[in-house]
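It is worth pausing here to work through a concrete case rather than discussing structure prediction in the abstract. The textbook approach is simple: state the sequence, then state the predicted structure, then interpret. We follow exactly that order.
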Amino acid sequence: MSENYDVIVIGGGPAGYPTAIRAAQLGFKTVCIDAWLNTDKTPAFGGTCLNAGCIPSKALLESSELVHRAQHEFEKHGISAGPVSFDLAKMQARKTKVSRDLTGGIKALFQANKVTGLFGYGKLLGDGKVEFKDHDGKTQELVGKHIVIATGSAPVNLKIAPFDGDKIIDSWGALDLAEVPKRLGVIGAGVIGTELGSVWSRLGAKTVIIEALPTFLPMVDQAVAKETLKHLTKQGLDIRLGAKVLGAKAGKSGVTVEYDQNGEKKTEEFDKLIVAVGRRPYTDGVNAREIGVAFDEKGFVKVDAHYKTSVAGVYAVGDVIGNPMLAHKAIEEGVALAEQLAGHHTQLNYNAIPSVIYTNPEVSWVGLSEEQAKAQGFEVKTGTASFVPSGRAKAMEQNIGICKVIADVKTDRILGVHMVGPHTSEMIAESVLAIEYSATCEDIALTVHGHPSLSETFHDAVLLCDNRAVHAVNKPPRKA
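Step two, the predicted structure:
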């Protein structure tokens, strides 16, 4: 017998579970289906983000950062802790607990909002029907007025370096290592590669990151990217740019990686190799193509401005519809879709979505880089302030990095903010709000910032756009 719902959500990650919760809050009878199984075979909502991505990686980043600070910074504060050691098993157990606590929170939110949560697989049958199969193989037919594909993404598996779950691993495997490898290789110097490389480097692994592109973090303003590369290199990360991997072969003792850098073939031996070259949209087993849902050439589900697919009554949100493949973007798409289904006029501003790399220093940005702004035809003015003279950053022994503001000369409107420095993941929120409200440099210049605070560096960067800074050296006036 079929069970009828107003909204059926397939996928319980950052796109799916907010869709389901908000839909239920708006009065829709809602069910959310999720197939996730942890390594111990326990089901959990939250998708990759909560179980094997954003949250566990940040837990390990925090733990490894504390180890690094104890080893290299405590003495500067007059703190003597003696020889520093760590228990990786306890570190991993804490990481797992952090994730489990949060995924349990989703289950509680489902109960509070009367969302039906089902563990298993959802398969589109057409005509508003979905086959649900639980992990024991039992099936049930569900019927829904609105069906949402929110199945997320999966790591890209390279043919020349295929995952084997032991020596050659993906990002999930990299978070579950039982011991610190002596030599660690990472393919890909993007967000995931630099974060994971940082974790294990701080814990003692000799880490080499191999990146095919000739530039580091091309999506970030290049002044900020170069500053980031300088600090990560200083910390011990060996980042090799313009290095194209030719192949990787796992053996009994490790992994042999062959790559070409500037026309020269090179070979490296590693104990473990992390492949972090990006993620692909995941719609395996959903049967979307078979019922007529259109996809683009990269495998993303095609949707319109209201997240409608080519099939009536079927929608898609999150990583499956394309970049940026970010959890917070997926959350807001899910909420926006639920509200649109209820007749609200909700719209997501894709120009005001922040990005963060949780290395130390942290890299954060929103809006256009100087290079992107100029390519789009803007006449720009920029201001770049350093964290070096920041009283707050200096007191923290973390006075490194820069904040750069890009603004339109004609309108004074802020187009982008890119920064690398302490706690920029929190600082970037003010910049996101500025872009969301089309703030000008004058708006921010007239806004009082607390002293001493890290946010003063953003204020100084804005003031430097117009040579108005009093705590930084202004640029010479432009010649007429």
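Step three, interpretation. The two ends are 79 Å apart (CA to CA). Residues 47 and 167 are 24 Å apart (CA to CA).
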